[in-house]
Amino acid sequence: MNNPAIIRINPLDNVAIATAIGGIGKGDSVVSGIVAIEDIPMAHKIALCDVHPGDSIIRYGYKIGTANRFIPVGSWVQEQMLETPEAPSLDEIKYSAPIPNPVEQLQGFTFEGYRNEDGSVGTKNILGISMSVHCVAGFANHIITRIKNELLPSYPNVDDAIALSHTYGCGIAINAPAAIIPIRTLHNLARNPNLGGEILVLALGCEKLRPEKITGEEAESDILYMQDESLTGFEEMMQAALQMAERHLKKLNARKRETCPISDLIVGMQCGGSDAFSGISGNPVAGFAADLIVRAGGTVLFSEVTEVRDAVEQLVARAADEEVAAKLINEMKWYDDYLGRGNADRAANTTPGNKKGGLSNIVEKALGSVVKSGSMPIVDVVSPGDRIKKKGLQFVATPASDFVCGTLQLAAGMNLHVFITGRGTPYGLAMVPVIKISSNTKLASRWHDLIDFDAGPVASGEKTIEAMGWELFQLMLDIASGKKKVATDVLGLYNELALFNPGPLT
Ligand code: CA
Question: 304 alpha carbon to ligand 1 midpoint, in Å?
């Protein structure tokens, strides 16, 4: 039951989404026998039948809420008319191995990347300066400015120099169990494939987080302490830092792109500023492209625990084996406890913008959000801050906060980011290209130089999910190869890294 005015995803659904840019007008006939009894804005829901108090509101074939009043056919279904269901119980989910569904493997697709000694592949060639404590962040910013002005012009193969700034490192309960998350995140961020294995760390000297926790066993690492007694004054420290940077720049500058198989691509999927279109156009297109990456041997990461919590049964059913299912449930339990300690639950996720964009509650948001993971089996679950160990589709357990999720996906090893938005966000990361997808053409037209890919033609029926999924897949390869640039790289529009620190401060 789809026409240009509405989209209904699943035959069981008793609501559909208004897809026309102007929404639906009172008196409009949307399908035979159903006439809108009031104006309904774009991306919002219309009732396809009379819904009585206590009846389920069904979207994507799942219950997104219980009606708390009579909702006549043709009316605008708004958030206050739905009671949010309880989150599915994690203790009652039973695992059964997925029915094998052999899909054709894709052969012959490649991209041009920078091969690293550890086997990983970069899509950019960046000098990254890590730090063990925020005290040195101002110094790091000075160093980056001097590197860009004085050194980078002599090293044309290096794309950028960035400081991996964060507010962690001291004034923290370093031995608290939860400290493992920010510490391993910093270690793995420094190992991101786009930094080429060249690890240098600015340290202060007296901080709790010892810089060796960041460098680990990596051979090519350097640590500069501002409190080093052999250094007198700021300029001497600066010269020491520039010398250290230049040693690494020389190695990075010698790197050349080479042809790499898709199995070296690690694509992080995320959404932010979602609307009800995200689950119709942007996320299904991203999910189709995610399947193509996995079928070609590559890796896709998806995350955002609070946005998939309500779809946990679907995810457990896709776990490749019982161990993966158990890991998935454990991460969800850990997050339920984490939220509970703050007297919150997953319903705290939705924003005023989500609701204005037609998403009534977290259940509706989750069912649309999980679509961007595609349909392949989940081969592993990665704890926050850890680096991936396998290839294929994996769940990286992170908060849904765009910056925290992005930072943890970088730590997991992401070398290409896909970000779907409906409301619009200028989100960008310096470390990897961020392909921004709009779920609706209205946004893509207004933000014509901020959006990289418009999935809106799917919502309007002009193009199929499959056709747009292939277009996105090709764009991903071009961007990973450096043949095209994303909007945030053209504009230099970057957000800060944001560590996930569930541990106490002192
Ligand atoms: Ca997000």
Answer: 6
Q: What is the Cα–Cα distance from 241 to 308, expressed in whole angstroms?
A: 44
Q: How far is the centre of ligand 1, averaged over its atoms, from the C-alpha of 61 (Å)?
A: 24
Can you spell out the DSSP letters for 49-115?
S-B-TTPEEEETTEEEEEESS-B-TTSEE-GGGEEPPPPPPSSSPPP-PPPP---PPP-S-EEEEEE
Ligand 1: centre distance to CA 403 (Å) = 8
Neighbours of ion ligand 1 (CB under 5 A): 272, 400, 402
Which residues have CB under 8 Å from 468's CB, separation 6+?
Answer: 285, 288, 455, 457, 458
**Cα 489 from Cα 435, distance rounded (Å):** 10
CA 405 – ligand 1 centroid, Å: 7
Please say which residue of 85, 101, 135 terminates a domain: 85
Point out the domain boundary residue: 202, 226, 253. Answer: 253
Separation of CA 438 and ligand 1 centre (Å): 14
Residues 381 and 440 both lie in one domain: yes
Q: What is the greatest pairwise CA distance in the chain?
A: 84
Same domain for 277 and 145: no
Distance (angstroms) between ligand 1 centre and the Cα of 306 equals: 10
Domain of residue 136 covers: 126-253
The reply to whether 73 and 185 lie within a common domain is no
Both 195 and 312 in one domain: the answer is: no
How far, in Å, from the CA of 344 to the mean position of ligand 1? 18
How far away, in angstroms, is 350 Cα from ligand 1 center?
Answer: 11
From residue 150, alpha-carbon distances to 119, 207, 246, 385 in Å are: 31, 30, 10, 34
Residue 17 domain-assigned (yes or no): yes
Same domain assignment for residues 350 and 487: yes
**Number of folded domains that form the chain:** 3
10, burial (CB in 10 Å: exposed 0-12, middle 13-18, buried 19+): exposed
Residue 118 lies in a domain: no
pTM of the model: 0.94
**Within this chain, do residues 31 and 172 fall inside the same structural domain, yes or no?**
no
CA 464 to centroid of ligand 1, rounded, Å: 25
Residue 503 lies in a domain: no
Ligand 1: centre distance to CA 104 (Å): 31
CA 137 – ligand 1 centroid, Å: 26
User: Kind of pairing, strands 393-396 and 76-77?
Assistant: unpaired
pLDDT (tens digit, 0 to 9) for every residue of the chain, 506 residues total?
445 588 888 889 999 999 888 899 999 998 878 999 999 999 899 999 999 999 999 998 889 999 999 999 999 999 999 999 998 999 999 998 877 778 889 999 999 999 999 999 999 999 999 999 999 999 999 999 999 999 999 999 999 999 999 999 999 999 999 999 999 999 999 999 999 999 999 999 999 999 999 998 765 679 999 999 999 999 999 999 999 999 999 999 999 999 999 999 999 999 998 888 888 899 999 999 999 999 999 999 999 999 999 999 999 999 999 999 999 999 999 999 999 999 998 888 888 888 898 898 999 999 999 999 999 999 999 999 999 999 999 999 999 999 999 999 999 999 999 999 999 999 999 999 999 999 999 999 999 999 999 999 998 889 999 999 999 999 999 999 999 999 999 999 999 999 999 999 99
Q: How far is the CA of 315 from the centre of ligand 1 (A)?
A: 18
- Using the mean position of ligand 1's atoms as its centre, give its distance from the Cα of residue 401 in Å: 5
Q: Note whether 76 and 145 are same-domain residues.
A: no
Compute the distance from residue 481 Cα to the ligand 1 centre, in Å.
25
